[in-house]
Amino acid sequence: MGNYRMCLCFIRKFKVMEAGPPPDVREAFKDYTTGGSHMTTEQLRRFLVEVQGDSGAEAEKIVDQILHKRHHVTRFARSGLTLDDFFFYLFSADHNPVINNQVHQDMTKPLSHYFIYTGHNSYLTGNQLNSDCSDTPIMKALKRGVRVIELDLWPNSDGVHVKHGRTLTTPVELRTCLRTIDEYAFLSSPYPVIITLEDHLTPELQAKVAQMITEIFGKKLYRPECECLEDLPSPDDLKYRIIISSKPPKEYKKLKAAKSKRSKSEKDSDDDSWGKEPLDITNDQYIDDLSSSDTHEESDEGQQESEYNRLITIHAGNAKGGLKEALKVEANKVRRLSLSELALEKATEHHGTDVIKFTQKNILRVYPKGMRFDSSNYKPLLGWMHGAQMVAFNMQGYGRSLWLMHGMFRANGGCGYVKKPDFLMDGETFNPKNDFPVKKTLNVKVYMGDGWDMDFKRTQFDLCSPPDFYTKVTIAGVPGDAKKMKTRVIEDNWTPVWGEEFTFPLRVPELALLRIEVHEHDITDSDDFGGQTCLPVSELRPGIRAVPLFNRKGEQYNSVRLLMRFQFV
């Protein structure tokens, strides 16, 4: 019973109702037990194969686990699962997950064949102007599965520290960041961690950085056999290895010399985030981090610089010409190109085919525009639709764009590498604006939700009554697939039952993400947030599944979840 005070002397009482199994669950139990009171292991196996699309090999294990958890007995001591046991199993995210939690994609292709979980200014704890720099965000990102960490290196009186240049952010020692990367790099995934270095150092300090990196990472550090790779290694080749990507020292000096000739109003690169946004990208000023087509030559600093240079696996640098020239694919070398989100928009508008062809062999990194002082993020799908491997995000930011990023990289067991669809890698160039025929249709049924009374305070949503929940279900993907739907509002109920079904025709399901949000309807104010998740459509397991929800930061709630059904036709 829940009590809610309406006035000083009037209290409303609401009974907390426990919703039973939905009709579809009852019907499935009845069908597969032929009207019996218990579901045997063999009957569950048939259900798993015919309804859930599973192999059925886990049936015996599931029965054992459910009976032990609910009744502390084995299957030999009971006839099987009761209806309540069966419902408990279906509504358990641990026993009945909505997506596969194992790496299952081919990991033997070059790195350019994968979307890679990428952070931007990975050391910042908050906004881009005056927040603290720390190794804590790096640790959190790596534990979440992020595989690309960005560090901005600046000189200080004691050597080298990491900070966002030309701002009031407080620095953190480079050694601290490197040690954290070394400790947490492979806790969540065995696949390679790439460190992108924005280098503002003298040759002497570069030599110190090279020594520091070598000492801390040891055998984990990948050293390329040749100065410029013709093809990138695969994630499998680089398991438990750390890779460095940066401008070779000679290229950095050329970039600095070129930038010194420009006025401050012309700058828009990740090195100088606070200039005006680009109006046109025909000039190379809007292209950052593209390796020069020249072969590397020893500088006057000689050994110091070449040792630093030898650590760089994926070369980046500056373009000599415009974007068309920058996107040319060279047969004998691979490289990394970085574009701001605005530059990417213009690049895909005018040179979409060239962008996709470039990413079939090389690495394209996209980063937030300089005006995102609050560490917000942009829409990532434009980059993915054009093959960009490194769509760099502020992981400390919140919002729907970051939820999409989390959703994309729940794919492939959450290992941080998601293989790009074949149509982004073959000879024919994909155009996301085309009017494609429907390839498959996804039917989504939202049965019910539960767990808010466990994870939220009683008065979190309403002071005077239980919450009024509704669910939004949307598709994010190519323009032709975008669609938004929502359930009706269920009033005064901590365990809402909707039982509503939605249909989503999909033209490019390989790039589609299913967004799910629960909100609490509020008549007098904006609706309250009740949880969210984002799931890659290509990874959805068919059948009746438990869908755990996450908070605004992307952290999973302990109890809040939905019961849903997914069918592909």
From TrEMBL:
InterPro entries: C2_dom, C2_domain_sf, EF-hand-dom_pair, PI-PLC_fam, PLC-like_Pdiesterase_TIM-brl, PLC_EF-hand-like, PLipase_C_PInositol-sp_X_dom, PLipase_C_Pinositol-sp_Y. Coiled coil: none annotated. GO terms for biological process: lipid catabolic process; phosphatidylinositol-mediated signaling; release of sequestered calcium ion into cytosol; response to stress. Its EC number is 3.1.4.11. Residues 338-424 form the PI-PLC Y-box domain. It is a peripheral membrane protein. Keywords: Cell membrane, Hydrolase, Lipid degradation, Lipid metabolism, Membrane, Transducer. One of its GO terms (molecular function) is phosphatidylinositol-4,5-bisphosphate phospholipase C activity. Residues 263-279 have a biased composition (Basic and acidic residues). It catalyses: a 1,2-diacyl-sn-glycero-3-phospho-(1D-myo-inositol-4,5-bisphosphate) + H2O = 1D-myo-inositol 1,4,5-trisphosphate + a 1,2-diacyl-sn-glycerol + H(+). PROSITE patterns: C2, PIPLC_X_DOMAIN, PIPLC_Y_DOMAIN. Residues 253-306 are annotated as: Disordered. This is Phosphoinositide phospholipase C.
